[in-house]
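hey can u check if this looks right to u? its 267 residues, i copy pasted from the old doc so theres a chance i mangled smth
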Amino acid sequence: MNVVTSRLAREHAVLVSVESAQGSVPREPGAWMAVFAADVIGTIGGGQLEFQAMAEARRRLAGGEGEPVRRFPLGPSLGQCCGGVVHLRFERIGAADMAALETRLAPKLAPLALFGGGHVGRALINVLATLPFAVTWIDSRDEIFPAQVPANVDCEHSDPVHAAVCDLARETRVLIMSFSHAEDLDIVAACLRRQRERADLPYIGLIGSQTKWATFRHRLEERGFIPTELEQVTCPIGLPGIAGKEPEVIAVSTAAQILQVAPPGKP
């Protein structure tokens, strides 16, 4: 039960969702917020649009009438200069809607596999906890995982670790940063073999330097992989121009790169 539906057992709310949008707008269709008498869960983008939508929702929560969908032009009249148009749907919700909303409001998470439970892996888990990914955290060392992990993270022990590659969900983004270069190489090779067969991994990222990748390229060529296959691997990982080596910096840079090249919803 999510935080919205658990509240509905005690009080009503108005669900405000982006029905459609044209032009430059703060949020995409499907974005929502639940407006209660005293507070709000979620966001449709902030600013005057959200402020006015909250006021309209509370008017309806108090018994006011209105069309289910209202048009909001994001121009001077609203005090926003985005220039687009947003159509918002207003729905009064209560305890009877809890079951349906559980499914409807569940976040749509893209699969991501993280191989390695070291310093960068742990930093990445903290970043990915806030992003729309369903993370499978994989390591050959069962004792490496912390006792508590975010709700969108499942821990998996795999020995040999590369055996987990064949069972990954379709369109999984893969990050490789195990404690061993030998393990890393086997995982990369398993990913490339899967790409030959299924071509369903939109991102394969390997932590390391240009020198590490040059060595890996040579060893992977010896295993029979050709240049066009090797081009599917991103190494070093992270956005170009971010030079920090701290685990937290690498984690933010890498998460940003995945959002850029293989964002959720766009495999």
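The chain has a mean pLDDT of 93.
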